[in-house]
Write a structure and sequence with these properties.
Distance between the termini: 108 Å
Order of helices and strands: HHHHHHHHHEEHEHEEEEEHHEEHHHHEEE
Structural class: alpha+beta
Helix content: 55-70%
Shape: flat
Largest sheet: 6 strands, antiparallel
Radius of gyration: 45 Å
């Protein structure tokens, strides 16, 4: 009796998946070939044309920067060791060579015409940079910049129709042409890739259809022998999908379906235990016992992992809550102190006292002090206690701190914050109604801008000063330093201008007195001359005495003239000091420019011919004038008040804001004759 071949479920599945595998393999082989073709095209784009375009752009920017640096070295930074010259030398010797080394690997893969263009450009660049170096060699010292003939010759070379400008433009034109060729090459390969991807997309749809058709046919074949038992299992699984845990009613079988039924029963039992465990986790009972069905039990192990993650999440939530509080605390503090600093930034003592009082209270500290750097005398720089909060008498009396002395002096010397938790017994005491005790923590922070120290903040507390609080003090320290710097500059500017006005008034009075004295002297000379002539007719006895008197009077006149010239020279020198220190200009009472210095011209990008006699409000933004702020400036100036305000300008179509200080200049009758203005951007 022949054994009938047993066409089991496993054999059917193997046969079906064999067909599917064959289709997939064939599909993958064809896909790989298509991908390799696209990769070849992509290599040209990614490893040749894209790097080439980037390198050519770098060279174009370098040529433009070299041209700008050359002009800056000639007309602005007139110094052999200027930063412009150093940067230009770096471009010629290092940056340019780096770009050439970077692009030379790609040039070898270009077409012959493109290679010839590139080598012509590099030869022109070498020639251009040689011309740059020759010009800078001619300007090798300060005297060469004063050589009018040499400067004229150099200027003609670098102006619009000059040799160097034409040379530079030719190079830039050639670079743009070569760049356009490389961009066109990259577009060509991109078009090839797009066409290839379009064909590839059609191929994918075709293979997907074939694969889907194969799956349908295989599915129909397999389902005929599996449909009834799988429907029963499917019914159970649907009930389980709705959250139920039914009993499995499938006849005992020894094939794969029977094994599936046994596994399903085991699964349902495991799910019941898992559900109980999940309920306990939902009740926050993280100590409930549970054993997964096996080491590979994904759901059971996931629940155990979820329990651990929930425990961890609770801990992290607490940490985030603390971090959010610290961030909000710092953010609110920065806003608060910036407002305080802005409102109190006109008076240094008021500013310092407000800041230290609010800072001690905001940090819940016990006492604090603010020291500023007193550098009025460059030979005697020290730290001065300008504001304090709850200092004891001993600390209050020590208003001057030498550099390097005490922790405050050390903080200035090292430009680093100091935070100590082991405070010496004799350092400071905090007094209250219950007695006095030393603080447990002291924080000393430098107030710096760009590594320059403007002051020191000292804080002491019974409580620990947390890291986020220390970081907050360091951040707010920059704002405090900026305010201190601004107040100091304003004070110095006001003092300088006041001194200039006083000297001007004094000079005018001395000039008036000198003229009056000279007039009196001349009148006396005439009278004396007449008397001497009369007396001479009578006698020549008084001849010598007359000559002596005239000589003394001439000396007195010469003395007053010399004194007047000295005072005039001092006033001119004071004007030069102001011109060299700040952007400054003067307005007439009719709002017209009557004087501007070079720093102000550089700031607004005008020359002196364009600005002199022009109305000041012609440069001011119409929005600023319409807001009424511009009229308020003139109203206060007419009342003799100095006005500090941020003024919005409209220059070359762009809105710019300058911080300006308007100071009325009056004559000896206290009448405003003109307005002096200091400004900064």
């Amino acid at each position: 009796m022949k054994n009938k071949f047993n066409f089991t479920i496993l054999i059917k599945i193997i046969l079906g998946f064999g067909i599917l595998t064959s289709v997939v393999v064939v599909t993958n082989i064809l896909i790989i070939k298509k991908v390799e073709q696209n990769l070849d095209a992509n290599k040209y784009i990614s490893y040749l044309y894209a790097p080439s375009i980037e390198s050519l752009n770098d060279i174009i920017y370098m040529v433009a920067e070299s041209d700008a640096l050359l002009k800056k070295s000639i007309f602005i930074d007139k110094s052999v060791g200027s930063q412009s010259r150093e940067r230009l030398d770096t471009l010629h010797t290092i940056v340019y060579q780096g770009y050439r080394k970077g692009i030379i690997h790609h040039v070898g893969n270009w077409k012959r015409e493109e290679q010839n263009m590139y080598f012509d450009i590099t030869a022109s660049l070498d020639s251009l940079f040689t011309k740059h170096d020759l010009i800078l060699d001619d300007l090798s010292d300060f005297e060469s910049y004063q050589n009018t003939e040499l400067m004229f010759d150099i200027t003609m070379k670098i102006t619009e129709n000059g040799d160097i400008v034409k040379h530079t433009n030719r190079i830039l034109y050639s670079l743009d042409s070569l760049l356009g060729i490389q961009e066109q090459n990259m577009k060509t390969y991109n078009a090839k890739m797009e066409t290839s991807f379009g064909n590839f997309n059609t191929f994918i749809y075709l293979m997907a259809f074939i694969l889907l058709l194969s799956m349908v046919l295989i599915g129909i074949m397999i389902s005929r022998t599996l449909i009834v038992p799988i429907k029963k299992i499917n019914k159970v699984i649907k009930l389980m999908g709705n959250g139920l845990q039914p009993e499995v009613e499938i006849d005992k079988r020894t094939d794969e379906i029977g094994e599936m039924a046994d596994s399903l029963k085991h699964l349902i039992t495991g799910l019941k235990n898992t559900s109980k465990f999940a309920l306990k986790i939902g009740e926050s009972n993280f100590k409930a016992r549970y054993k997964p069905l096996s080491e590979q039990d994904v759901l059971g192990n996931s629940l155990i992992l979820m329990r651990e993650n929930l425990i961890k999440a609770n801990r992290e939530a607490e940490i985030r809550k603390i971090e959010n509080y610290q961030r909000n605390w710092s953010s609110q503090g920065l806003t608060k102190f910036n407002d305080l600093i802005r409102d109190a930034s006109k008076n240094l003592v008021e500013l310092s006292q407000t800041v230290i009082s609010e800072l001690v209270e905001y940090l819940d500290a016990s006492l604090g002090g603010l020291f500023i750097v007193n550098d009025d005398n460059n030979q005697d720089i020290y730290l001065e206690l300008i504001a304090f909060y709850a200092y004891d008498r001993q600390k209050f009396l020590q208003k001057r701190i030498e550099i390097g002395e005490t922790l405050v002096g050390q903080c200035y010397q090292e430009n680093e914050k100091i935070y100590i938790t082991d405070v010496p017994d004799d350092y400071v005491k905090i007094s209250s109604g219950l007695g006095s005790d030393k603080p447990k923590n002291v924080l000393i922070v430098p107030l710096t801008i760009n590594e320059k120290i403007f002051g020191i903040v000292e804080l002491a507390s019974f409580n620990k000063i947390e890291k986020y609080q220390i970081e907050f003090v360091e951040k707010i320290g920059e704002s405090i330093a900026t305010a201190i710097s601004s107040v100091k500059i304003n004070l110095r500017t006001t003092a300088l201008l006041t001194e200039s006005n006083e000297k001007s008034k004094s000079l005018e009075k001395q000039e008036s007195r000198s003229r009056q004295n000279i007039a009196e002297i001349e009148a006396n000379l005439m009278l004396a001359k007449e008397e001497l002539e009369t007396e001479q007719r009578k006698s020549n006895v008084f001849e010598n005495e007359r000559n002596t008197v005239i000589s003394e009077l001439e000396k007195t006149k010469q003395k007053y003239n010399e004194k007047f010239k000295n005072e005039e020279i001092k006033l001119i020198n004071m004007q030069h000091i102001i011109d060299g220190a700040f952007p400054f200009y003067e307005l007439t009472i009719n709002d017209e420019y009557s004087y501007v210095n070079n720093k102000y011209l550089d700031l607004i990008n005008f020359n002196k011919t364009e600005i002199m006699g022009k109305k000041h409000n012609a440069l001011v933004s119409k929005d600023f004038i319409n807001s009424g702020n511009y009229k308020k400036i003139w109203d206060k100036l007419k009342q003799g008040e100095t006005v500090s305000l941020s003024v919005q300008y409209l220059i070359d179509g762009k809105s710019r804001i300058f911080n300006e200080k308007f100071i009325p200049i009056v004559n000896d009758k206290n009448q405003m004759t003109k307005i002096g203005v200091f400004c900064e951007q």
